[in-house]
Amino acid sequence: MAEKLMKYSDAVKEFDPVFGLETHVELCTNTKLFCPAHIEFGGEPNTQLTPVSLGLPGSLPVVNQTAVDFAIKLGLALHCQINEWSQFARKNYFYPDMPRDYQISQFDKPTNGEGYLDVELDDGTVFRVPIERAHIEDDAGKNTHIGGADGRIEGADHSLVDYNRAGVPLIEIVTKPVEGAGERVPEIAGAYVRAIRDIVRTLGISHGRMEQGNMRADVNISLRRKGETELGTRSETKNVNSFHGIERTLQYEIRRQAAILDEGGEVLQETRHWDEATQTTAGGRVKSDANDYRYFPDPDLVMLHITQDHIDEIAKTMPEMPRERRHRLQNEWGFSDLEMRDVVNADALDLIDQTVKDGASASGAKKWWLGEIARSANEKGVALEEMPITPADVAEVEKLVAAGKLNDKLAKQTVSGVLAGEGTPAEVVKKHGYEVVSDDGALEKAVDEALAANPDIAEKLKGGNMKPMGAIIGSVMRATHGQADAKAVTSIVMKKIRG
C-alpha cells in the first residue's frame, strides 16, 4: 500500500529537516585491507580470497599501509584532525556476506577525527558540511538474490554470496547532523557526495564509481517542528548508490515523515531501502544503536601510530583540490558559470583539461565532448570517459580543422569514424578521403559551374546582394561531396563577381 506523503514545499515550511550522510568510499589499493588477496572489480566470484578474508580460524590480519596513507590523504583534504593514535575495533553483527560475523572497523579512536567540507552549489552558494570522522574499515561481500524482481530479495528463490569484496578497504566518512539547510537539503546532500567523489578521484585513492559500488551512502534524515531544537527520530536509508538516488531519497523521506508527524504519529527509527524503480523507500529493520554492535578493540591488531613527520610527508604530495582547480580552469578557459556547470555536470572536466593540454582550444574541446561525443555516450548509456576516443584524438581533430584540412562536416564524420573504431583521426581521414579540397583549380571549376547554373543568383551577387551566397557555397559543397573549404569558396566567388 502506498505511503501517505505531504507536498514537499509544505513539509519544509512546517518542519526543519536535519540530515546526515555516511559515505562509504572503496579504496583502490592492489590488495585488501588485512591480507594480500588481489582486488579486481568484476572478477570470477569467490576467487580473490585468502584465509584472512574468509575469517578462517587461526588467520591473522596485517594492516595495509597504503590504505592507511590513503586515509591520511583524505583526512587532509577534509580538514580532519588526524589522530596520532588510532585503533581498530570489532563491530559484531551477523550478515550472510560477512564471513567473520564481525567487521573490522574503527570506533572511539578513528584515524581521522572532526573536519569539514565546503560544498559549492550551482548558484555559487557555499555550504559547510561538518564531518564527525572518516574512519577505516573493511567491506563485506556481496549478495545476489535470484528469482526476485531487479535482483531484490523480495520474491527471490535463493541468494548467492560472492566474498571477493570481503576485506576490501573502505573509508567511511560520517557527517555530524547537518542543520540549517532547509528546503535545499537534497541539493546540498547531492553536491556533498559529488564533491567527495571528485576529491577521492583527484587524490587517486578511489575510482569513485557509484554504479560499481566504489561509493555508496547511507542517508539519514529526521524532522523537527520549526522553532524546536531537539532532533527528531531519524530513518537511515542504506546503500544508496547514485547522486540522484540520494537526492530523491531525502525528498521522499521528508515528505513521508512530515505526513506521519502532521497526523500525530511517530516516526520509527529504522533502516530503509531506496527503490529506483518506484522512486520510494521501503522499511527494513529496526535500527541498532552503537551499543548493540558490542564494539571492542580487535585483539589481533595493535594501535596505529601516525607521526606528524609522516603526515607532513604525505601533505607534500597533495594535489590541487577540485573546487580550487575548477575556479582556476574556468578563469583560464574563459567559461561562464553556466558553461562550467555544464562541463562539471557532464563529468567532462578532466577530459577537456587533457584535450587542452594536448593542443586544442578550450572552446573546441568543450564543443566536442559536450556535443557529438556526449550524444553518442547518452545513446549507449555509458560515461564520457568510457567512449572509445581519447583527448589526444579530439585535439588532433581540432588541429586538422584549424589547419584547414577539415571543415565542420568532415570533422563530425571523422569523430564518428573514431567512435566506430575505425582508428585515429588521421587514419579515418585517409580511409574515407575526408580532407578538404584545397586545390584552387578544382574549387574554381566548381564555382564557375555553380554560377553558370544559377545566373539569377550570380546577378544578385554582382549587384551587391550577398544573401544568396549560401546557395552557391551549397552547390559547390555538393559538387565536392562536402569537402570544399567554405571560406575559400567565398573568396573565389568574390573574385569572380568583381571581374
Automatic annotation (TrEMBL):
Cross-referenced InterPro entries: Asn/Gln-tRNA_amidoTrfase_suB/E (IPR017959), Asn/Gln-tRNA_Trfase_suB/E_cat (IPR006075), Asn/Gln_amidotransferase (IPR018027), Asn/Gln_tRNA_amidoTrase-B-like (IPR003789), GatB (IPR004413), GatB_Yqey_C_2 (IPR023168), Gln-tRNA_amidoTrfase_suB_CS (IPR017958), Gln_synth/guanido_kin_cat_dom (IPR014746)
A GO molecular-function descriptor: asparaginyl-tRNA synthase (glutamine-hydrolyzing) activity
EC number: 6.3.5.-
GO BP term, pick one: glutaminyl-tRNAGln biosynthesis via transamidation
Keywords: ATP-binding, Ligase, Nucleotide-binding, Protein biosynthesis, Transferase
Catalytically driven reaction(s): L-aspartyl-tRNA(Asn) + L-glutamine + ATP + H2O = L-asparaginyl-tRNA(Asn) + L-glutamate + ADP + phosphate + 2 H(+); L-glutamyl-tRNA(Gln) + L-glutamine + ATP + H2O = L-glutaminyl-tRNA(Gln) + L-glutamate + ADP + phosphate + H(+)
Pfam (any one): GatB_N
Record-annotated Asn/Gln amidotransferase domain positions: 350-497
Complexes and interactors: Heterotrimer of A, B and C subunits.
Purpose of the protein: Allows the formation of correctly charged Asn-tRNA(Asn) or Gln-tRNA(Gln) through the transamidation of misacylated Asp-tRNA(Asn) or Glu-tRNA(Gln) in organisms which lack either or both of asparaginyl-tRNA or glutaminyl-tRNA synthetases. The reaction takes place in the presence of glutamine and ATP through an activated phospho-Asp-tRNA(Asn) or phospho-Glu-tRNA(Gln).
HAMAP family assigned: GatB
Family per record: Belongs to the GatB/GatE family. GatB subfamily.
Protein name according to UniProt: Aspartyl/glutamyl-tRNA(Asn/Gln) amidotransferase subunit B
